[in-house]
Amino acid sequence: MNILVTYHSETGNTKKIAHAIYESIKEPKDLLTFNEISDVDKYDLILVGFPIHEFGPSKNGLKIFGERITNKKVALFVTHAMLEEAPLSNIQISNCKKIAKENNLLGVYSCRGALSESVAMHMINSKDEKMINFGKMRGQTIGHPDENDINNAITFTKSLLEL
């Protein structure tokens, strides 16, 4: 099996998970950013990582599926600043799953990442009370993805390879 781990990361959260996933794979593999992908035909499985923006996939996440990845076995790994148990977390994941509809989606791994200071300040300075409150929660995201998040990503990847 030939595997591609590909990702887009703005703050380093998704990159950290991508590298951990890549290192855990024993099969032939490549690690590429979205911009480095030229051809996906040689891959039997593609693990695609991106941050969640505005309760769904980042624009780069949408673009990679719209332009380059169709009719493939895929799994997603996403990073976000929301608590896993938050009601909107399920909506975020559902929105991310939709972009892989032209593929065989094997699973989704989701973990918390640190909310950047600039994004938090933008939210705090908005007029939307929900955004203000979310921005103020930045401190709770610092340190993520942590060792537990990374170990869970590795476990997720190993379970995919057993399918």
Keywords, separated by commas or semicolons:
6 strands, 7 helices, Rossmann fold, alpha/beta, 163 residues, 42% helix
Mind explaining what this structure looks like?
The chain is α/β, with parallel strands linked by helices. The chain has one domain (3-114, 143-161): Flavodoxin domain (Rossmann fold, 3-Layer(aba) Sandwich). Helices cover 42% and strands 23% of the residues. It contains 7 helices and 6 strands; from the N terminus they run E-H-E-E-E-H-E-H-E-H-H-H-H. Strands 1, 2, 3, 4, 5 and 6 form a 6-stranded mixed sheet that branches. Strand 1 (3-7), helix 1 and strand 2 (29-33) form a beta-alpha-beta unit. Helix 1 (13-24) packs across helix 7 (147-161) and helix 4 (117-124) packs antiparallel against helix 5 (129-136). The chain is globular, with a radius of gyration of 16 Å. The protein starts with a strand and ends with a helix.
Please work out how many helical segments DSSP would assign. 7
Assign a percent range to the helix content: 40-55%
**In the CATH hierarchy, what is the class?**
Alpha Beta
- Indicate the proportion of strand residues: 15-25%
The class by helix and strand makeup works out as: alpha/beta
The general outline is globular
User: Any idea what the CATH superfamily is called?
Assistant: Flavodoxin domain
Query: What is the number of beta strands?
Result: 6
- Unreliable stretches (pLDDT < 50, length at least 5) are none
> In this structure, how is the largest beta sheet organized?
6 strands, mixed
Averaging pLDDT over every residue, what do you get? 91
Gross CATH architecture? 3-Layer(aba) Sandwich
What name is given to the CATH topology?
Rossmann fold
Radius of gyration from the CA trace?
Answer: 16 Å
- Give the SSE string: EHEEEHEHEHHHH
